[in-house]
Amino acid sequence: MYWGLDPLHRAYVKMFVRDVLEMDTYPGHPAMNVFAYRNHPVSRVDLLGWVVRVEEREKLFNYAIDDGTGVIGCTCWKPRVQSTTGEDSMDDTDYSTTGASTSADSAEKEFADFLALKRREIKKCVRQLKQPARLGDLLHVRGRIKLYRGRREVGAAYFRHVDDPTCSIEINRTMKQLQLYQDFYDVPFQRGNGDSGDCTGAGVVKSLQDAIADFLNTSSTVLNFEIKELATVDSLMAVVEKARKENESAMTAKQVNSLFTQAVGGLEDLGLVYKRTDKDNLYVVVDRDETLESNVLEIVRRESQNPKYSESGCHYRHVLDCLRTNPRFSGVGPNVVVHILDKLESQSDVISTSENYYIAF
Prior knowledge:
single chain, alpha+beta, CATH 2.40.50.140, Arc Repressor Mutant, subunit A, five-stranded mixed beta barrel, 15 strands, 22% strand
């Protein structure tokens, strides 16, 4: 709802290719090609990878880059330079000053030399951009995520070849990315409540989210619920009433419903509940859905017999795709599947072969 306040919304996010390919479309966003990492809206990415495919066309280069986690296509447009004569004449202009004796003339000559240097650098950059990258080159790309013929790719607004013979640049970038994931990307975005009189601040939503989680944990008979039913629970309404008193403002039924919707959405992001279908308002408690757990386990067991997954295991996204073929689980999100798989692993029903890959015997 408040995606425009997320600092990642307009930023070039330094992500791994795997995450760019696996992100779901951001729900409710008015623009196309906006995707969700956790609950962050992402439309622009900053990638660094090795060129594994090169296709040159009249006005652009199509590259495929591999950063070790996946391969994605990048459309890189050639620079719009019409005349080579204009380029060659860049260095022919005489910017020097004659008879420079005063300090002002010296400063002017220094500035003219600086301009000449920058023009030579621009000319060199344009010349490099007009030449295709080669297989095995390290390419730095920034651009918007887009879909082309059903495939996700990056339309580059900026790209350049990176000279990194010792791979030190790539290693340092990977370390910084891991820190960014830990500090920012994997932390769910919550709207600040700096505005006075705001009854729907992030602090209130978080308190209500924790209260709902405690209620579901202690009420073992609750297998599923609707949001309007939560508003009848005294302990949960006490959190809402406390927020109303602190803000000293009235709260409409629409605001109360918005609070509960955001709080349940937070639990959904954590994989603790899921919405049964898009057209249904019924939410299911994940840990009490034995049918869901058994279906996930059966899918992993079945796919583990497939030679393609018999050694490396199958990715949780593949498990999710298989699960969603059942209409009953069409509303299950990726975090729910990860939660179930982690639970099955703790019970020794499945084994994690690597990050996000699972196998069962």
